């Protein structure tokens, strides 16, 4: 039994032990248990990632639905965050932050639950991962242009007197792991096409996936309408101002934007 399998068995045991099924109408903790079990049973394995569903539609008896609906959106967000936390601990990947919905269905017995799942990156959650936002509550998760405050900007532009620092991209995960590319031009194109400034042989990359460009001494990453999207620090973006240490994910390739020390 490999390490991943052992982790899954332990996780399912903990779920079963902690969330004992109740008699009568459904309890919130029972829904949490069933969601976790569903996540564990619907993994999809790629070359380097284990994907789990990000959309969970919970079907309930009308009476059960009335009870749980009274808890409001806060309860559904709590369930979604719990799925994200547990999935992240196991090293699983979500196409987007998980979303939980509940629906009333007549033919489901009282106290029972049926869950339908989807792998759908177009579904946008109404919550954010704590610690990964910059205090901007209006920021969108799916397609976003991020504005940062002057303090963070000043830090990203810091240079030593008399020496110009060089920006660079390093591939920290993927087929070209370990390669480093210095950004000596004001615009760099990244993708599978041979004419790209940085060509990466990743089949999940578009031919012209994203570009990095300098503007007013700041660096931005911009998605070029790629099929699988461009992510910065786990957020899918159209345009994003990057800072030293930010991680850019495209396809199965993970890159880090940095500055020479």
Task: Please explain how this structure is put together.
With 261 residues, the chain is α+β, with helices and mostly antiparallel strands. It is elongated. The longest helix has 17 residues, at 73-89. The strands form four sheets. It has a six-stranded antiparallel beta sheet with strand order 8-7-17-16-13-14, with no helix packed on it. Strands 10-9-11-12-15 form a five-stranded mixed beta sheet, with no helix packed on it. Strands 1-2-4 form a three-stranded mixed beta sheet, covered by helices on one side. It has helices spanning 3-18, 28-41, 62-69, 73-89, 150-156; strands at residues 44-45, 50-52, 55-60, 93-94, 99-104, 113-118, 167-173, 180-182, 187-191, 198-199, 210-215, 218-223, 230-232, 235-237, 239-242, 247-250, 253-259. Helix 1 runs antiparallel to helix 2 and helix 2 (28-41) packs parallel to helix 4.
Set down the secondary structure blueprint.
Blueprint: H1 3-18, H2 28-41, E1 44-45, E2 50-52, E3 55-60, H3 62-69, H4 73-89, E4 93-94, E5 99-104, E6 113-118, H5 150-156, E7 167-173, E8 180-182, E9 187-191, E10 198-199, E11 210-215, E12 218-223, E13 230-232, E14 235-237, E15 239-242, E16 247-250, E17 253-259
Parallel strand pairs: 2-4, 3-5, 9-10
Antiparallel strand pairs: 1-2, 3-6, 7-8, 7-17, 9-11, 11-12, 12-15, 13-14, 13-16, 16-17
Helix pairs in contact: 1-2, 2-4
């Amino acid at each position: 039994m490999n390490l991943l399998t052992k982790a899954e068995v332990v996780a399912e045991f903990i779920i079963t032990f902690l969330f004992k099924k109740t008699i009568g109408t459904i309890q919130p903790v029972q829904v949490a248990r069933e969601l976790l079990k569903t996540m564990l049973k619907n993994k999809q394995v790629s070359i380097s990632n284990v994907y789990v569903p990000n959309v969970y539609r919970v079907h309930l008896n009308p009476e059960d639905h009335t009870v749980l609906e009274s808890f409001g959106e806060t309860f559904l967000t709590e369930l979604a965050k719990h799925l994200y936390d547990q999935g992240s601990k196991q090293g699983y990947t979500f196409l987007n932050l998980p979303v939980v919905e509940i629906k009333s269905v007549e033919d489901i017995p009282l106290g029972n639950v049926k869950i339908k799942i989807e792998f759908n990156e177009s579904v946008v959650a109404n919550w954010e991962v704590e610690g990964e936002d910059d205090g901007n509550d209006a920021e969108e998760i799916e397609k976003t242009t991020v504005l940062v405050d002057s303090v963070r900007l000043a830090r990203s532009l810091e240079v030593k007197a008399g020496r110009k620092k060089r920006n660079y991209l390093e591939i920290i995960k993927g087929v070209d792991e370990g390669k480093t590319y210095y950004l000596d031009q004001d615009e760099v194109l990244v993708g599978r096409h041979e004419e790209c400034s940085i060509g990466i042989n990743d089949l999940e990359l578009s031919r012209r996936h994203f570009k990095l460009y300098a503007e007013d001494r700041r660096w931005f990453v911009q998605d070029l309408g790629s099929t699988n999207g461009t992510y910065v620090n786990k957020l899918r973006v159209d345009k994003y101002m990057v800072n030293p240490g930010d991680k850019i994910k495209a396809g199965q390739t993970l890159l880090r934007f940095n500055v020479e020390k």
